[in-house]
């Protein structure tokens, strides 16, 4: 644990080795992306739109992934290259990747980065032990939950729109395929391409590898749309780095779009694997692309113009049953849909952390601290 500030007025600074060079960062939990003033390496060619202190929109570049180390903890990270920033910023993206914890006390502010995963497990258990001064009712139950690693597209539900668009050309599509399509039911979102799924503890070798890429963005190369007896899915062509992360047995990288009666989204990976090796025996051309019959009619593949553009996706980790039962969870149904983030850098909104419903002790008063003083006109406007 390292002391980063003696008083609340002093800026909390923390040294991090980036590309072998030690750099001081201002800890800024309000920043969604960590930023550096000086160019530490080549640019990735990708840009992010940011809002400056003066309120102006700025387009700033992201660096290539750079090696980052804090004590014995090492990872890689992309930084925002912001030459106009007054100081280097350690934002929430890198704080989360380092599994860092901030502690506030009368003696100053401390930051801790765990040395190993045992510390992470101990911290999770400790967090469940509530003191007598806590306002929450204790809940001693702590159970293991499924963990899924996935690539989540950032452009919203493109696939639903694509699926609906296809029906406009029903007269141009083979009748057997059209009959199959009307039987399918769209898979509820959010759409994703599963990289790995574990019902118990995540193997150490995979966790070590996946943590290096967690919250990285990549381009999903959508190959072809496949339709079989199980349903419809878009196959994904992965790059060399992403191929190492894909660890789903008897499956192929894909995005589930729709399922047939009696089947489930988990059946679509084996379907894509089976259909990909079948020969194309007949082709049909229509305005959106080409439809091919596979084998002796076991399925169809579509080469669509709409699939030619790569889609940016973020490598993410979903823990617990929240992601599996998102549409059925009564607690989550009470959460306004506007609080869910639509991409990884959306500040102040929920993304991978499910809301947790808690029961307060009787007569407990929630803490309230005013962030800054509002003008009388502003307060009057809020009341109206």
From TrEMBL:
Query: Domain named Peptidase A2: which ranges?
Result: 23-94
Q: What keywords sit in the KW lines?
A: Hydrolase
Q: Name one Pfam family in it.
A: RVP
Gene Ontology molecular function terms on file: aspartic-type endopeptidase activity
Tell me which PROSITE patterns the record gives.
ASP_PROT_RETROV (PS50175), ASP_PROTEASE (PS00141)
Which Gene Ontology BP annotations are present?
proteolysis
List the InterPro entries: Aspartic_peptidase_AS, Peptidase_A2_cat, Peptidase_aspartic_dom_sf, Retropepsins
Q: What is this protein called?
A: Peptidase A2 domain-containing protein
**Organism annotation:** Pleurodeles waltl (Iberian ribbed newt)
């Amino acid at each position: 644990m390292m002391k980063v500030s003696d008083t609340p007025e002093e800026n909390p600074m923390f040294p991090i080795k980036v590309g072998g060079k030690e750099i001081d960062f201002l800890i800024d939990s309000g920043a969604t992306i960590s930023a550096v003033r000086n160019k530490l390496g080549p640019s990735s060619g990708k840009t992010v739109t940011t809002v400056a202190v003066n309120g102006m929109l700025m387009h700033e570049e992201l660096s290539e992934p750079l090696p980052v180390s804090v004590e014995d903890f090492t990872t890689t990270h992309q930084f925002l290259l912001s030459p106009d920033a007054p100081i280097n910023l350690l934002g929430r993206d890198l704080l989360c990747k380092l599994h860092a914890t901030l502690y506030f006390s009368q003696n100053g502010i401390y930051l801790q980065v765990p040395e190993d995963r045992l510390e992470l497990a101990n911290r999770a258990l400790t967090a469940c032990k509530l003191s007598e001064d806590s306002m929450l009712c204790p809940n001693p139950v702590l159970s293991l939950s499924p963990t899924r690693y996935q690539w989540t597209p950032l452009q919203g539900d493109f696939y639903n729109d694509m699926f609906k668009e296809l029906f406009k050309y029903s007269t141009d599509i083979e009748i057997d395929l059209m009959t199959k399509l009307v039987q399918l039911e769209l898979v509820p979102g959010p759409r994703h391409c599963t990289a790995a799924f574990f019902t118990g503890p995540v193997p150490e070798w995979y966790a070590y590898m996946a943590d290096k890429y967690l919250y990285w963005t990549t381009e999903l190369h959508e190959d072809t749309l496949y339709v079989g007896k199980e349903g419809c899915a878009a196959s994904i062509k992965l790059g060399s780095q992403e191929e190492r992360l894909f660890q789903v047995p008897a499956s192929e990288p894909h995005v589930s779009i729709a399922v047939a009666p009696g089947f489930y989204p988990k059946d679509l990976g084996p379907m894509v694997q089976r259909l990909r090796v079948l020969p194309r025996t007949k082709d049909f051309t229509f305005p959106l692309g080409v439809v091919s019959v596979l084998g002796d009619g076991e399925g169809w593949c579509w080469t669509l113009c709409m699939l030619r553009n790569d889609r940016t996706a973020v490598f993410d980790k979903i823990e617990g049953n929240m992601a599996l039962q998102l549409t059925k969870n009564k607690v989550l149904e009470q959460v306004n849909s506007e609080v869910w983030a639509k991409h990884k850098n959306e500040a102040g909104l929920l993304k991978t952390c499910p809301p947790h419903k808690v029961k307060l002790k009787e007569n407990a008063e929630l803490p309230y601290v005013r962030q800054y003083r509002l003008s009388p006109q502003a307060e009057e406007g809020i009341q109206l």
